[in-house]
């Protein structure tokens, strides 16, 4: 398993030995105006709805089958099916409520989430029969959003040892400084492991969200050889990614999408 940048779509693509397709968009190739230029996929950042729909059309081949969630930085994963196709695709109001994870075994849907520093995490089993996606900021990470996805998939017949996991571009430990309260919550969850490094003073630390999620997934039973991480920092590459932290909240969103 690995990640590669597709020069045609300018998407980062997660390659797996299954029929599943999974990708993260970049900010290029869309129609939105600055500072949301140009392929913002979110309706919730002040962009024109017509621009967002066009950007999604360019990013998702099966837009009528797209399912999006109203993300809340928590840990719930919702199991969806063909009856949910189109929810959140053309407007925000119809999106799945209160979820930061989506999972399914249907071939008739595309699962999607928006990102601008938080970690996109993709799931499929070794045969490509089930898929999932989660949005993992620090709150979702320590709350166990990735574990919620594993639990949902296991309830439907796929155990963690069967999972392939792709962890996509996010704000890296080079740029993601957190305060001592956040650091303590991370340490409480991880116990002896410490994905933190010294920050500007004794009250601040740099957090590695990639490593935090990897450790939590491994402890939940996903083999390390079945986790592929794209360690590409969203804050370090303004020409490529939106970044909420770098752009002080005035930022578009990339999309993470997965389908069978």
UniProtKB/TrEMBL annotation:
Coiled coil: none
Record keywords, A-Z: Hydrolase, Metal-binding, Transferase, Zinc
GO MF assignments: copper ion binding; hydrolase activity; S-methyl-5-thioadenosine phosphorylase activity
CDD domains referenced in this protein's UniProt entry, alphabetically: YfiH
Pfam assignment, any one: Cu-oxidase_4
Catalysed reactions, semicolon-separated: adenosine + H2O + H(+) = inosine + NH4(+); inosine + phosphate = alpha-D-ribose 1-phosphate + hypoxanthine; adenosine + phosphate = alpha-D-ribose 1-phosphate + adenine; S-methyl-5'-thioadenosine + phosphate = 5-(methylsulfanyl)-alpha-D-ribose 1-phosphate + adenine
The organism's place on the tree of life at top rank: Bacteria
Keyword Transmembrane applies: no
Role according to the record: Purine nucleoside enzyme that catalyzes the phosphorolysis of adenosine and inosine nucleosides, yielding D-ribose 1-phosphate and the respective free bases, adenine and hypoxanthine. Also catalyzes the phosphorolysis of S-methyl-5'-thioadenosine into adenine and S-methyl-5-thio-alpha-D-ribose 1-phosphate. Also has adenosine deaminase activity.
Family the UniProt entry places it in: Belongs to the purine nucleoside phosphorylase YfiH/LACC1 family.
Name of the protein described by the UniProt record: Purine nucleoside phosphorylase
């Amino acid at each position: 398993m690995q990640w590669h940048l597709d020069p045609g779509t300018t998407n980062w693509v997660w390659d797996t030995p299954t029929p599943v397709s999974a990708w993260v968009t970049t900010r290029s190739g869309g129609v939105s105006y600055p500072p949301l230029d140009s392929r913002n996929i979110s309706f919730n950042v002040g962009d024109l709805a017509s621009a967002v729909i066009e950007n999604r059309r360019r990013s998702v081949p099966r837009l009528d089958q797209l399912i999006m969630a109203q993300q809340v930085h928590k840990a719930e994963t919702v199991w969806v099916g063909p009856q949910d196709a189109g929810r959140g695709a053309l407007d925000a109001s119809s999106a799945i409520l209160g979820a930061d994870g989506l999972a399914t075994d249907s071939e008739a849907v595309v699962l999607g989430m928006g990102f601008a520093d938080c970690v996109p995490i993709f799931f499929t089993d070794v045969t490509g029969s089930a898929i999932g996606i989660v949005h993992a900021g620090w709150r979702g990470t320590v709350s166990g959003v990735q574990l919620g996805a594993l639990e949902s998939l296991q309830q439907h017949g796929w155990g963690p040892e069967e999972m392939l996991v792709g962890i996509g571009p996010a704000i890296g430990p080079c740029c993601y400084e957190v305060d001592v309260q956040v650091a303590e919550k991370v340490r409480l969850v991880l116990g002896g492991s410490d994905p933190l490094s010294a920050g500007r003073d004794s009250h601040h630390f740099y957090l590695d969200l990639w490593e935090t999620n990897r450790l939590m997934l491994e402890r939940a039973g996903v083999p390390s050889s079945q986790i592929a991480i794209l360690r590409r920092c969203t804050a370090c590459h303004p020409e490529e990614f939106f970044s909420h932290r770098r752009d002080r909240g005035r930022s578009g969103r990339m999309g993470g999408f997965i389908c069978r």
